[in-house]
Design brief:
Largest sheet: 9 strands, mixed
Family: Belongs to the heat shock protein 90 family.
Organism: Pedobacter yulinensis
Number of helices: 17
Low-confidence stretches: none
Bound molecules: adenosine-5'-diphosphate, magnesium ion
Pfam family, one: HSP90
Keywords: ATP-binding, Chaperone, Cytoplasm, Nucleotide-binding, Stress response
Helix content: 25-40%
Strand content: 15-25%
GO molecular function, one term: ATP hydrolysis activity
Shape: elongated
Number of strands: 21
Length: 560
Amino acid sequence: MQEKGNISIHTENIFPIIKKFLYSDNEIFLRELVSNAVDAVQKIKRLAALGQYQGELGSPLVEVSLDEEKKTITISDNGLGMTADEIKKYINQVAFSGASEFVEKFKDAKDANEIIGKFGLGFYSAFMVADLVEIQTLSYQEGAEPARWVCDGSTEFEITEGARSTRGTDIILHINKDAEEFLSKYKLEEILDKYGKFLPVPIKFGTKTTTEPDGEDEEGKPKTRQIEVDNIINTTNPIWTKAPTELKDEDYLDFYKQLYPFSEDPLFWIHLNVDYPFNLTGVLYFPKLKNDFEMQRNKIKLFSRQVFITDEVKDIVPEFLMLLHGVIDSPDIPLNVSRSFLQADSNVKKINSYITKKVADKLQELFNKDRKSFEEKWTDIGLFVKYGIISEEKFNDKAKDFALLTNTAGENFTLNEYHEKVKDLQTDKNGSVVYLYTTDAAKQDSFIQSAGKKGYDVLVMDSPIDNHFINHLEQKLEKTVLKRVDSSVVDQLIEKDEQNEHVLTEEQTEKAKQVFEKAISKPGYQVEVVALHPDEMPVTVTMDEFMRRMKDMAKMGGGM
Ligand code: ADP
Ligand code: MG
């Protein structure tokens, strides 16, 4: 058997183009070839299960090996293999079915992912790092002959008789000069770890030594010996592929440790599992937040059938949940298309709102089941919830029932509970309920104290998100305004204790006021002599709430 021919493609030589445009991301050749090998193994298993393959299945295995001297990387599998005809069909033609379209569009492509998926260049990504690619393969089909395919990166290929004696395929890459960095054990290990850590078929890369028990010595102490075993780089059944009922808390925590070795335990997690109208599994963790939010973003890993794709999950995960950690696996997310397409994709939209709903449901469940523990976690969860409430109407609809407000005494209230608590006493002249809050309990302590004396409650609103949350509450709550505890409104509220003991006469009060007003003559501030009770501050300087917010906004530049 011997055949020479041309890869059917309508352009002279596409490989220089591939190399040039895919260069930045060339490590994904390994992801593509290893996932093809995994697919081949999965396919033979399926054929066996369907009774269409009766032969020996063997232990499914994909092996990656490196020959530094020969400058080759080989990806071998014991999958279903290919006949010479299948090579012609799947490798020579199909891979380039979109080639003319490719040539037309390659100029706009921003990264390798985009091209690889769109034009079915999976296998051909090998040419990003190799100047000669060889396939040695033996099909599972009865009477199949081993076949060999060689291509040097031009459009010419050669098919000859192959050398494989067992079912499966070897892809042998003769690494080119520019890609010699890949001829390193550590480099390959790193890439395999990145993309293949959770592939469903064992991936072997070399061997490693371990110790195993080896009887007892003369004194009866257990002995061990060193043995060489296959170095399997992956876990084939990561927890997101299992049913939640099979898993214990420890399993979730262990997996978290595996993903983020140096992190504190997460607060809780959500197991995602849906197969209609799209397919998606995963586990999302609520981390304990650190101050440096930026460092904690983009920690969710996106997989497609257990192949790692990216940790850029923007658009798939709602913005307010970008601080979550964990994994999402979906074959239905279009991985290889541009950002704008992703945003418009209806599956992505559905997935986004599914995740929002799941998170809201989980929080509601935690709240209902164990309010005390929910309250303990609120400092961490509160940030997500408030952000979600502000940014996602659908989330707000659900979260308004479990969002908490915390007062200076450390008590927590739902929005409804809080309304009930303050509505009678904290009402202004217009009949609006006034929620008082502090942005800095230490600085505003004297105001908090005097509000407390009057029987008012003060909320703590001291996180960066609270500025926006306050605005949101005012928009959503009927006839409710929020005023900082040191604003000029406090004294306009109805007081619980009407019998105030005046220590100054009205005349004295007026005099004092004038003195202070002169001393503090800044626009926007109001001076009030409120020495009505013997144990209160004699004078307060307040500012109108609206004026203050404007000033604060100007200081922050209006951003978030
Ligand atoms: P895709 O994986 O998206 O189908 P590829 O370009 O990666 O596209 O591969 C093209 C085809 O070549 C595969 O669909 C498969 O039929 C065949 N193929 C590639 N690698 C192997 C392999 N290791 N074993 C068997 N068939 C393979
Ligand atoms: Mg492929």
